Amino acid sequence: MKNEIKIFSPATVANVACGFDVLGFCLDGIGDEMIVRKTDKKGIYITKIKGFDLPYETEKNVAGVSALALIEDAKPNCGFEIEICKNIKPGSGIGSSAASAAGSVFAINELLGKPYNQTQLTYFAMKGEAIASKCEHADNLAPAIFGGFTLVKSINPLEILQIPTPDALYATIIHPQIEVKTSEARAILPTEIPLQHAITQWANLGSLVHALHTNDYDLISRSLHDVVIEPYRSQLIPHFKEVKKAALGAGSLGCGISGSGPSIFNLSKGIETAKNVEVAIRNIYKNTAINFDTYVCKINTQGMKILNV
Amino acid sequence: MKNEIKIFSPATVANVACGFDVLGFCLDGIGDEMIVRKTDKKGIYITKIKGFDLPYETEKNVAGVSALALIEDAKPNCGFEIEICKNIKPGSGIGSSAASAAGSVFAINELLGKPYNQTQLTYFAMKGEAIASKCEHADNLAPAIFGGFTLVKSINPLEILQIPTPDALYATIIHPQIEVKTSEARAILPTEIPLQHAITQWANLGSLVHALHTNDYDLISRSLHDVVIEPYRSQLIPHFKEVKKAALGAGSLGCGISGSGPSIFNLSKGIETAKNVEVAIRNIYKNTAINFDTYVCKINTQGMKILNV
């Protein structure tokens, strides 16, 4: 059994339009790298963090907390050192904390000979995610661990469904570098919503799941609407409407807020369209004072990847 | 081309648990029979109604109104006589008016050489359904016309999706012969619902669509929950809780209100379980003063059937 492993822990998109709080998908080429190695000394030790300034104390680090949850259950005869090379900016809305929380438990599970399945890993990772987002949720963790599209059917008991991913589906992400406080993104949501809006939303989600099963890109497009959350949270993202209009004009199948923002995601059929969408949405932000990054990638159906050490 | 046709127009279940207002399925063996024949005289004529006392005036009869909507568009060089042998009791909650509204347009379309597709027929039938239920909806019409499970993605524009039906799925229906006024069933619903309940509902609907695609009976069972509508409408159906408990105890995958009631539906894997469920729920009502009927049948994946004349 290996004593050290290097992994790629992907960025993810949660709250996919009509799938608020339940549907997510996994990105490719954008993610953190982590090296985890066994140590004789029991416990979890964060030994290196590159990229962003995050806490080294295990109990304050999401990767540390999820790892602690795992070893508390597994009780291995060793400890683990974790090195994190963070590429996903915290607060970007594409699952930065989820990548850390999921990556550490995935890597440790590999080093222990895979005693846990993906749902169990998601459960441990939720403990880490909770310290970043103040509540337990799995909508970024599930796609990071399972890959592709995932539907979190329920949190308690934790049940995650893997929804098929049509082959030609590409994501285009824009991350405007503004801060959207999670607390503000939550506070802006109503606690009650009109029944009619809820019906529209679940009709679209049912339809989207059907479309993903049947490779129906046009139906994916007709289903990617969010009448419940977007009207509120889009107010927190400057130029959201213009970005959406430009993206749809360039062929995006659908455009929405990634997670609780500020990133905006698009889905397209084929990489060429996805790149055209990138150009169109860059054009909106490049005339503003806001810095931004964009990414184009295939949907990552594998999730976590083991890299050669 | 035939001048006369005899059809079976099936009963249906709408508002399938988590699929309020959007998801329906089609029953087998329970339905109306209709004979429709061409006449030289233009127009629509209801010439015979057996079973229940319903209006003969075309404009007041749901089968008549939907037929008028069709011929207004088709402008055929003939008229049609309609005989209705009504087996589905009006007000039972298993799509009685939908069977009439859908049957007439299906039959006329056949006699005209099928100029219209199923979605167009549903559109015409909605005009008839509207006079029975005071608003246009398609959640009983769609399964009657398409068969199997259908998801009404949207009414305007009308878009209906056919969701796969697992082979061993059987329905058990109990119709307690009480009156639930549609107006009361509507008035009892809240106009706003908690966002958290909506999320639970759409997680279950997404999960149910996935389960129907993957023939996962256990997941069908875990998805057949209605946290939004049932807590209100079940109050209008005496002994609903006991029926549900008995049904689930007998192996039902899920139990809910059919349409706006008073009928209660169950889904089971295999006819034997479906019959056990029937026995269990009959036992609840047989000690009460309420008359009731029960039905056990396979899910009807064909929808409308042409019978030999």
Description of the molecule:
Chains A, B: One of its GO terms (biological process) is threonine biosynthetic process. Chains A, B: It catalyses: L-homoserine + ATP = O-phospho-L-homoserine + ADP + H(+). Chains A, B: Keywords: Amino-acid biosynthesis, ATP-binding, Cytoplasm, Kinase, Nucleotide-binding, Threonine biosynthesis, Transferase. Chains A, B: This is Homoserine kinase. The structure is a homodimer of 309-residue chains. Chain A is α+β, with helices and mostly antiparallel strands and 309 residues long. Chain A has 2 domains: 4-163 and 301-307, 2-Layer Sandwich (Ribosomal Protein S5, domain 2), CATH 3.30.230; 169-298, Alpha-Beta Plaits (2-Layer Sandwich). Chain A has 10 helices and 12 strands. Chain A has helices at 62-74, 96-111, 118-133, 141-146, 182-187, 195-214, 217-223, 230-233, 240-249, 271-285, and strands at residues 4-16, 19-39, 43-50, 79-85, 149-155, 158-163, 169-176, 192-194, 254-257, 264-269, 292-298, 305-307. In chain A, strands 1, 2, 3, 4, 5, 6 and 12 form a 7-stranded mixed beta sheet that branches. In chain A, strands 9-10-7-11 form a 4-stranded antiparallel beta sheet, sandwiched between helices. In chain A, helix 6 (195-214) runs antiparallel to helix 7 (217-223) and helix 9 runs antiparallel to helix 10. The model of chain A has no long low-confidence stretch (mean pLDDT 96). At the A-B interface, strand 2, strand 5, strand 6, strand 8 and helix 6 of A face strand 2, strand 5, strand 6, strand 8 and helix 6 of B. Strand 8 of chain A pairs antiparallel with strand 8 of chain B, so a sheet runs across the interface.
